[in-house]
Amino acid sequence: MPRHIAVIMDGNGRWAQKRLMPRTMGHRAGMSALKRVVKTMGELNIPYLTVFAFSTENWRRPSEEVDYLMNLLVEYLLKELQELHDNNVKVNILGDYYSLPQRCRLQLQDALRKTRHNSGLNFNIALNYGARNEILTAARKAAALVASGQLSVDAIDEDLFSSFLFTSQLPDPDLLIRTAGEMRLSNFLLWQIAYTEIWVTERLWPDFTESDLMEAIAAYKGRDRRFGGLSRQGEDHA
Ligand code: FPP
Questions:
Q1: Domains along the chain?
Q2: Ligand 1 close to Cβ of residue 14 (< 6 A)
């Protein structure tokens, strides 16, 4: 079983367009899909889920859509926080949520505080997140420590660098799911997915169900993860 699943929840807009509805209705339906996936992950005892909810590039969308997404996030946390907490879910945010509107920040801080001692599913929400920015920030941290004499250049290894990222407390994802058929990474977890298995489905995010998740996990189980080495079969022949 994968321990950590990351998801690029794409296709909300297309789902709405197909139904001649405003894009925002797609995001609302996407919220229901997210609830289903969080529940299933808990039932499957998979310890880490990371979802891409809002990227640093999503600010380029029309302000009504950005506002809607921010309000949806607040609504989601208001409605779901108690249930998440009752189900022992630990909420974590990846990204610069301090620059989000105040009502979002306060709601997020409440969710982080309330669930911080929970030991069930680690539910990571990437918000105002961009991987290049994350890597640059980590590089600046390392450079500042070197410049102040607190760190030697040779001490900067993969583990130390990883500890400067938003994901410092998380294992790397085993499986990355992207919905709506696009074959790209969209600036998501670029450092962390070096050896992650990628599974793309045509299914639009609002239509994503438990059985799609099971299909992704089954595909993952059939993969031969070599991490740059040889496959088990290859080792037999070596
Ligand atoms: C991509 O679909 C989705 C997003 C930019 C936002 C993801 C948000 C949710 C699933 C809403 C619920 C979650 C929270 C935490 C509020 P798109 O709009 O890019 O779709 P398109 O490519 O079809 O236009």
A1: 4-130+172-221 (3.40.1180.10)
A2: yes
